[in-house]
């Protein structure tokens, strides 16, 4: 089922969480916050939309880290329903795509629910104060050829890092629905 992210209330503060990575190491939002902002990406391994953009997301996350913006990826899919999204497969996916950021397991799906995440990928960009400033797509290439793309999320997060405010115009992300229990 293809979904489009709903418009979000800018300035909203994302609730704290403590989630494990596939090895069981716990991470809290406070630990993961960047000096100039934080990007939370709800993704999963099996989604064709995520697979199409994952290398661009990793490259953009690396560029953002150099500017003081940290990234965290969260998988909230019910991996009992979709075994390709299980923690061992998450670990393999992260290694295959050279993740430089934590990839966390939202097994009870409470973080996705609390954030209002609906699809994979679903991006939430927060400023240094923890206020939501971006809820849009990665870029205009989406699943297509990305040699010429407008890196909307990267540009938005760089703007947020400099000004604390996101762009006025934001186009929604689209992807596969989160596989709820």
UniProtKB/TrEMBL annotation:
GO terms for molecular function: antioxidant activity; oxidoreductase activity. Residues 8-159 form the Thioredoxin domain. It holds the Pfam family AhpC-TSA. SUPFAM superfamilies: Thioredoxin-like (SSF52833). InterPro entries: AhpC/TSA, PRX-like1, Thioredoxin-like_sf, Thioredoxin_domain. PANTHER family: OS07G0260300 PROTEIN, THIOREDOXIN-DEPENDENT PEROXIREDOXIN. This is Thioredoxin family protein. It comes from Rubellicoccus peritrichatus.
